[in-house]
């Protein structure tokens, strides 16, 4: 968790650095497309702050008011980031429309474009780090921040290519058109981010391949039991919640059944990582002859 917190704090510093560079690039050129690129970076900074707060909150242990923990806090951060992206897209579209109705010739200076390119390289490197660590540590807020930065990098590359083309050809109308394309791109990104985060808030089940892995683990490590049924799963941030009913022979002692449950839980955590597992033990007359068959 300390690694995730440090990266979340680092995102704020990187975001401020990139924002400063892109504002310099806009100041040097006056390009509305580069202005749109800089405006998206202000969202990056705000989103990084929200992610840090959410990760800190999600790391707090369960308490009386939140007996299941605070893991879902990261989803709220991802939703907020999606909303901020949408707001930025609308602001960019407004500025681009103004440039279309009242066109002007920006100063496409090489230093300005070089500064913007340097900012994009920094963003690309940091995005790669955030996504890799976010996935390995199962941090939705960190991974969402990384995916957003990837979108920013793609937008920046497109803007630089288009602005360069406008400078060479003299087609200055390309500048606001590019800004509109950037707005559309980040609007789509924001929608995808909100959609995936809402899935987590709605307790969506784990992915089919992960569910199959869970079923296999139960089947292979429940020796002594008869079957497992009513398996349910969900994600809450970095934690996977798993619950199911385990059918055992009626004459089995509580201690023996408990040993089976401990064995299954250890095997599941080895596969899915941090998890909250609830197993309801039932006698064999409660068997449904469906679900997971014990090998």
Oligomer: single chain
Strand order of the largest sheet: 3-2-1-4
Straight-line N-to-C gap = 37 Å
Poorly predicted runs are: none
Number of helices: 8
Structural class of the secondary structure composition? alpha+beta
Helix-residue proportion: 55-70%
Radius of gyration: 25 Å
Regarding CATH, which class of the largest domain? Mainly Alpha
The overall pLDDT average reads 80
If classified by CATH, what would the architecture of the largest domain be?
Up-down Bundle
Task: Report what the structure shows.
- The chain is of the alpha+beta class.
- It is built from 8 helices and 4 strands.
- The chain has helices spanning 2-29, 32-58, 73-101, 110-136, 140-169, 174-201, 208-221, 254-272, and strands at 227-236, 239-248, 275-283, 292-293.
Structure characteristics:
4 strands; Cation_efflux_TMD_sf; Alpha-Beta Plaits; about 70% helix; 4-stranded mixed sheet; 8 helices; 2 domains; about 300 residues; Alpha-lytic protease prodomain-like; elongated; alpha+beta
Concise account of the structure shown:
By secondary structure, the protein is an alpha+beta fold. It has helices at 2-29, 32-58, 73-101, 110-136, 140-169, 174-201, 208-221, 254-272; strands spanning 227-236, 239-248, 275-283, 292-293.
Blueprint of the fold:
Blueprint: H1 2-29, H2 32-58, H3 73-101, H4 110-136, H5 140-169, H6 174-201, H7 208-221, E1 227-236, E2 239-248, H8 254-272, E3 275-283, E4 292-293
Parallel strand pairs: 2-3
Antiparallel strand pairs: 1-2, 1-4
